[in-house]
Queue: 3 jobs
Job 1
Amino acid sequence: MTDQTTQPRVLIFDTTLRDGEQSPGATMTHEEKLEIADLLDEMGVDIIEAGFPIASEGDFAAVSEISRRAKQATICGLSRANYKDIDRCWEAVRHAKSPRIHTFIGTSPLHRAIPNLTMDEMAERIHDTVTHARNLCDNVQWSPMDATRTEHDYLCRVVEIAIKAGATTINIPDTVGYTAPRESADLIRMLLERVPGAETITFATHCHNDLGMATANSLAAVEAGARQIECTINGLGERAGNTALEEVVMALKVRNDIMPYSTRIDTRRLMHISRRVSTVSGFAVQFNKAIVGKNAFAHESGIHQDGMLKNAETFEIMRPEDIGLSGTSLPLGKHSGRAALRAKMKDLGVDLADNQLNDLFVRFKALADRKKEVFDDDLLALVQDADTSE
Ligand code: KIV
Ligand code: ZN
């Protein structure tokens, strides 16, 4: 086991309450947002992006209240690149022990065309808005939205302007989930090499999952020098979602041998917060979702169940207890074998002789062919049927 406490820290920036909530249909009530913010704070999230204060009175109220009650986490609010947004954001986050203003503007050709700004006009806007934010708060994050589709020379130019204007974190968003791991790493490396002052600030990676590569892209960025990962619980977020917090955190824990970076997350709280976010957002977690899916620690086939009963490491690379589950689950179905049936019957307090187990196994298989999963009550009924027919 490696000692993670001496390793470079990767900050975990959770945006479930901002980017996650932007997912169509995922709206949360004020009380629900407070509950999730408390859970994130207790779990050890470094920065909570609590909302977009100018977006609505409700968002403003939630960000203000979360700022007042957070015990450890930095509380961040989002704002577009204009003074009104930034002032409103500051009004909401200023109550926090550690407040942060996050301001952004789309820098790729497609996004520059929307406000119809020339490259020079946009550069000036970035300078003015970051300076304004920094005059209010000494913790300022700036994001060039759609960074992964922005010309490299222009990206370097605007990142340098934002750093000179006082940004303390530069976030590199892959807004449309377009990048791939090698490119994600190369981009961070290029910025660190080419931008004067880059070594004085923290680079963040913010990935979307449109091609299913958000986790891989985030970890590749960390290996290249990013020290903040932006993510959401269950990967909640617009379209295919954001990087899933539970995935990057557990990847850094389980493969710490090849990715030697530490986080402050208490991973034993992951399952609980995953379930709460699923319930309050109304977004079910897919059964085979990495880390927190119902089947992530379940084994049905006979070969796997037999292996698990002999040594859990045969088919599990992490312990279910590490994410807050009480143990592995060995659901019985048509692929299960005798060893799992014997173990299950023992758990249920039924001791069977070999011939009784063989008989039960035949009838269990027949039932499993008709039913997706065989439950404890089904097994007890099969045993009772055998007793009464004797
Ligand atoms: O995906 C994105 O570009 C964003 C920014 C607002 C940071 O969420
Ligand atoms: Zn985003």
Note: The chain has a mean pLDDT of 96.
Job 2
Amino acid sequence: PDNTSGLADIFDFKAYLAKAKATVEQALDQSLVPERPESLREAMRYSLLAGGKRLRPILCLAACELAGGDAAQAMPTAVALEMIHTMSLIHDDLPAMDDDDLRRGRPTNHKVYGEAVAILAGDALLTRAFEMVALRSPGVPPERLLKVVGELSLVAGAPGLVGGQVVDLESEGKEVDLETLEYIHLHKTGALLSACVITGAMIGGADDELIAALRVYARGIGLAFQIIDDILDITASSEVLGKTAGKDLIADKTTYPKLLGLEESRKRAADLVQEAKGVLKPWASKAQPLLALADYITSRDR
Ligand code: GRG
């Protein structure tokens, strides 16, 4: 039935999220078979199946449906996006980078399997991500898959996550300006979030107009996501001096609240979300999951 009026128009986001998360968890669980050697498979599974909000795959599936596609066709790409996200977290936690002992409430990958295996598990997840798209996406026209591979290669590499991480590392202990801070966030976090909706939409057969709107949407929610992250670091640190917050205070990391103040940061995040939602207006009720996800990202408390 067409959800265009009356009570049927009330979108049950909680149910949507729970269902999407469950299907994603199942697909992630099935994505690492067969895998040899067993020790590598265990290290890959340890981080890939460690929980997390699964925001990236869910954004991908929602964008595919918005574009008129079948979400099941985008699932291998949704899994690929979570693999890239997970490998970036494994590598980010390494002693050579952030040197973290805990991730998602558990010991980090290298703490359990050692640095060499953690690096290789990350490498294997990154390459498996491309395999998911190129070789494990039945039924999707090859020209769409080629576009998805292109998009993923841009956001994972120097023009995306890796570039953002390098600028972040180079900025450590320095006062950076708003432009540099936004560069870091747009590359480290925004690029992959953007790829989620763009690749999902590509698989669903989106036209240029929808792709352009989704790029604006994704930039908005990506930056808002990071501003909220910075705000949560501060508010959490004033409650309990948690590990991340404590470390950030010591490293004197530049954050939005530091540059703009807490109130202005909150306002900036809210404005970005409004802008993101605004561009999807022409797609009306079909955009409901993405509209609700934009709110969810800014209302989260962890
Ligand atoms: C991709 C080739 C390649 C290399 C990675 C290490 C690195 C280069 C980049 C670092 C990227 C990084 C750690 C970005 C931060 C991303 C971020 C906002 C993580 C938190 O995301 P949530 O809140 O976490 O979605 P959950 O646990 O819910 O998935």
Note: The domain at 12-299 is CATH 1.10.600.10 (Farnesyl Diphosphate Synthase).
Job 3
Amino acid sequence: MKKIAFLGLGNMGGPMAANLVRAGFAVTAFDPASAAMEQARQAGCASGATAAEAVAGADAVISMLPSGAIVRDLYLGDQDAAGLLQVLAAETLIIDCSTIAADDARQLIAAAGERGIRAIDAPVSGGTAAAAAGTLSFMCGGDAAAVAAARPLLAAMGSNIFHAGPAGCGQVAKICNNMLLAIQMVGTAETLQLGVDNGLDPSVLSDIMKASSGGNWSLQKYNPYPGVMEGVPASRGYSDGFSVALMLKDLGLAMESASGSATSTPLGALARNLYQLHGGDDDTLRLDFSSIQSLFRRPVGD
Ligand code: NAD
């Protein structure tokens, strides 16, 4: 499998496609944004003028898109245009890495299967830094043979490849992980604020908790308190990370799943509400999700 089409060359897709090129795959890219296309060309991708042109002759199609509606329109078609499933050859492998609803993933995989096209859902964890470093974690849903066929491609972009279960299970794993991440980040932020408001240095408190039973990923890798950790969004004004908007999307998907399965997720619902309260304007929605720390900071002198 050598000829790859890559659709959606944004913050995640751009570096993922670049890693495929580095690993020796011939990648043809398509993104409606000209800046994204220019970066893809600089990374060594060929370019398609349309998605249909980019997928012509491809052994595999990888997509990294913002929403389920866009994924559905692209592959299944909308009122104005036929979807890519109409033009892909049987045996083509679709790997959709976008974070979308599990039901959307199942619909795509079933429709592809009816045409003899193999498809898996393979959302990722790790963010833009892992996308650039080629160390993403992939959570795959679909049949075992299709996941096995995708492995050499995924291995060029990531270091962990999990087969979560049948179609849609990758998306379920992804929203479970991100719901826990949101809960843990909110808990870490309010705890750090409690320590600071009671006279502790946030770096000292972080070191203590990292080595104690409160230790968690946010403290280890992604401290939300400004100035505690170098190289994380909190130390650059919460820029260039995983946006509040994307976290809200994932928490919305988690709440839809919880509602569908009648599962009680009180902490997930609370985390979603806190993120909604925090992301009240467009500027905040663009900030990294660890900016939830600012919800707990009190004005000086308060
Ligand atoms: P992004 O907005 O930076 O990139 C999305 C790209 O898709 C854009 O360049 C856009 O022009 C392009 N696009 C839109 N419609 C298209 C179409 N019809 N055909 C081809 N391209 C199209 O978003 P991102 O941060 O790269 O995120 C992509 C996906 O990865 C999302 O589903 C997100 O939830 C998920 N994700 C993001 C992160 C992160 O840290 N940013 C981490 C894990 C998962």
Note: The longest strand covers residues 158-165.
